[in-house]
Design a protein that fits this description.
Oligomer: single chain
Order of helices and strands: HHEHHEEHEHE
CATH architecture: 2-Layer Sandwich
Strand content: 15-25%
CATH topology: Alpha-Beta Plaits
Largest sheet: 5 strands, mixed
Structural class: alpha+beta
Length: 186
């Protein structure tokens, strides 16, 4: 009976892992990101602390996949996932695959200057991987464009605004020529 209970416990743990993890990158998935952001938003409102969200995607990734193939595209996304896992050491932070070639990093209780520095370090580390990208219009290697939003939220602020603001800043990075981090500003 004890062996059976242990087996059931292992299976339940494996199911929890599979339900929360992106199978390709081994990062948390979108569902976990959504839950984490809602929880951290409420905590930041209660404590009067800040919350930063860095959202980025791979520049010209469709062209990368079309040129190198989907297997190499998957390898590229896995390498980016490893950079994120190596760069973010605080247990309070969360990194997740948002979808496709898009990733998010949540930085609770992080001063704006530190959030900007972390986002830029991630951008530089991914560029420093030196993954060839012959079809890129801006560089000869894989780069990212990112948007950063930062707030000390109040109960009047909807937490979904943080994601919208990061997304707007990401698209501003693309408009400005890609391979950069842009801070969302009103």
């Amino acid at each position: 009976m004890c062996v059976l209970l242990e087996k059931i416990a292992r299976l339940e743990e494996q199911q929890r892992y599979l339900a929360s993890t992106d199978g390709l990158t081994q990062l948390f998935n979108r569902r976990i990101f959504d839950e984490f952001l809602a929880r951290e938003w409420s905590a930041a409102v209660r404590r009067g602390t800040s919350l930063a969200l860095f959202m980025f995607d791979v520049d010209f990734f469709k062209k990368y996949n079309d040129h190198y193939g989907h297997v190499k595209g998957d390898d590229c996304l896995k390498a980016i996932g490893q950079v994120l896992l190596q760069r973010l050491k605080r247990e309070t932070d969360l990194v997740a695959r948002y979808g496709g070639e898009e990733f998010v990093v949540v930085l609770p209780e992080t001063p704006l200057e530190d959030a900007l520095r972390i986002a830029e370090e991630i951008r530089q580390a991914i560029q420093n991987l030196g993954i060839d990208h012959a079809q890129s219009e801006g560089a000869n290697c894989v780069t990212i464009s990112g948007g950063l939003s930062w707030i000390k939220p109040t109960s009047a602020d909807p937490y979904s605004d943080l994601t919208k603001q990061a997304d707007l800043a990401l698209y501003r990075s693309k408009e400005l020529g890609r391979n950069r981090v842009t801070l969302w500003e009103v």
